[in-house]
């Protein structure tokens, strides 16, 4: 009796080549002479708000504005970041700032 056949026996064995030292697969090489652009103030503030949306410790963010979520978290003693409230108060009518990442998705 021989060994039991496996499904992987029907596929050829492929040896992977090692890349150059220090090079990992999927890593993009930086363009020569190109510096990464710093974020504008609005982009940095929106990134802060996106991180707040993704932070589960402040409760769910669907169906309410970011400011409502911030107030709810504060009332529950969850200590939401004060920077988030400051950003929200500086852009009171702008839906990019007031609505969470998920506001376009139906509940």
From TrEMBL:
A single MF term (Gene Ontology): DNA-directed DNA polymerase activity
Stretches for region Disordered: 1-38
Biased composition range(s): Basic and acidic residues: 15-28
Coiled-coil stretches noted in the UniProt entry, renumbered to this chain: none
A GO CC term assigned to this protein in UniProt: delta DNA polymerase complex
A single GO BP: DNA synthesis involved in DNA repair
Protein name: DNA polymerase delta subunit 4 isoform X2
Organism of derivation: Vulpes vulpes
């Amino acid at each position: 009796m021989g060994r039991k056949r496996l499904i992987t026996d029907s596929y050829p064995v492929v040896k992977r080549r090692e890349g150059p030292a220090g090079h990992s697969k999927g890593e993009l090489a930086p363009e020569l002479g190109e510096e990464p652009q710093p974020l504008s103030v609005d982009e940095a503030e929106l990134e802060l708000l996106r991180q707040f949306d993704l932070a589960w410790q402040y409760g769910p963010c669907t169906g309410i504005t970011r400011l409502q979520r911030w107030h709810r978290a504060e009332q529950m003693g969850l200590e939401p970041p004060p920077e988030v409230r400051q950003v929200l108060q500086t852009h009171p009518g702008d839906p990019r700032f007031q609505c969470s990442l998920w506001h376009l998705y139906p509940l």
